[in-house]
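It would be a great kindness if you could assist me with a short task in structural biology. The full record is reproduced below for your convenience:
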Amino acid sequence: MQDMTVSAIIACAGSSSRMNGVNKQLWELGGIPIAARSMLAFEGIDEVTEIIVSARECDIPEIERLAEKYGITKFKCAVTGGETRQQSVFKAFMETDKATRLIAVHDGARPFVNPEHIRRCIKDASIFGGSTLGVPVKDTLKVVDGGLIIDTPNRKQLYITQTPQIFRRDIYVKGINFANDHELDYTDDCQLAEAVGVKVNMTVSDYRNIKITTPEDLAVAEVFLRMEHTE
């Protein structure tokens, strides 16, 4: 694993459209902004050699300030995001060191990712070429068409996909080139790898690795913080 150097991309360029005006990336949980918590999770990973943040242009000065305040020594730069997640990640990718072997993409709004799970995902990606964190679904899911249930997938085969999603550099490049050539825009990076025939490994994570998307998620996050203080 010593040669498995990793460039970490933190995706913070979302518009927070479902947050009722709250900028989720800069919202403080336990006194620490969400974006800073996400950067800190990667700061302590030995294999990670650099951290690049994709953010809204108006947030970049604050992201840079947070990196300095919280001692993110691996912070390389923040770049202005694109119109979609895929475009934002690619703009950050263009700033990565070409010598790094693995590209790790993490949602900036997942502040509770466990560093040990990141390490396991890095190891799995080095073996399989690509790996993502995720957890088994708890509920029975239904496929609905026109308001009617048409199928019930086998729950044992279903996982909730999280981040980071980590890939060999060459696989990410092949995937993004395929997407650009065919004018495709995917909602997660696993789809880039899948599009070029790579079977992505699922590294089992935990249910605390939530994505802050709505105000209700902030309430759940506060509960997680209280649990941490009582454990």
